[in-house]
């Protein structure tokens, strides 16, 4: 019976997931409310499976960074990502980072149960609607400018979608104002946005698509 660590900054969500995975067979469930405390809890508790949110506060990809760091230490532990986003690009990013599964936060309990059981048995699981979208992304001749974004560009795009100013983004990411403006200029070019308002629209479409 697996020991499970849930990393999410919403205690009510973490508690709900905890009830579901206990009913599905988890013998112990731990929780952490940030990527940093999640990594610390992983090292201390050595769980058999992780359930990780992607977004923490305004950082839409903090969970991806956590998975990448985790994979440097443990390439084997099953990691299930759950997110409010339905974007195939976001799901693919999470899978490329090393997650074994992806489900939406509004998935019914029976789907969460199925995802948990699949990963517990060494299998992968992706919500059917997301799997279809990913398959369409991978079809011959399909290209997406957003797929070429770097991790830093993707992180900044997340803040753009939140309506953050250049100065606010610089403070959030701990980089210079000039770096933010240069990155947003590159994003406008890559995403074919002629101005900042268009980039905001593109960013929102990316995360909600």
Question: Concise description?
Answer:
This protein is α/β, with parallel strands linked by helices. The protein has helices at residues 11-24, 35-45, 62-73, 88-97, 109-120, 128-137, 151-161, 166-173, 177-190, 196-208; strands at residues 3-7, 28-32, 49-53, 79-83, 101-104, 125-126.
CATH class of the largest domain: Alpha Beta
Question: Strand order of the main beta sheet, please?
Answer: 2-1-3-4-5-6
Mean of residue pLDDT values? 85
Distance between the ends: 36 Å
Total number of distinct structural domains? 2
β-strand number: 6
Number of helices: 10
CATH topology of the largest domain: Rossmann fold
Order of helices and strands: EHEHEHEHEHEHHHHH
- What is the fourth-level CATH superfamily of the largest domain? Response regulator
Biggest β-sheet: count, sense, barrel? 6 strands, parallel
Low-confidence stretches: none
Give the oligomeric state.
single chain
Question: What attributes characterize this protein structure?
Answer:
alpha/beta, 10 helices, Rossmann fold, 209 residues, globular, 2 domains, six-stranded parallel sheet, single chain, Arc Repressor Mutant, subunit A
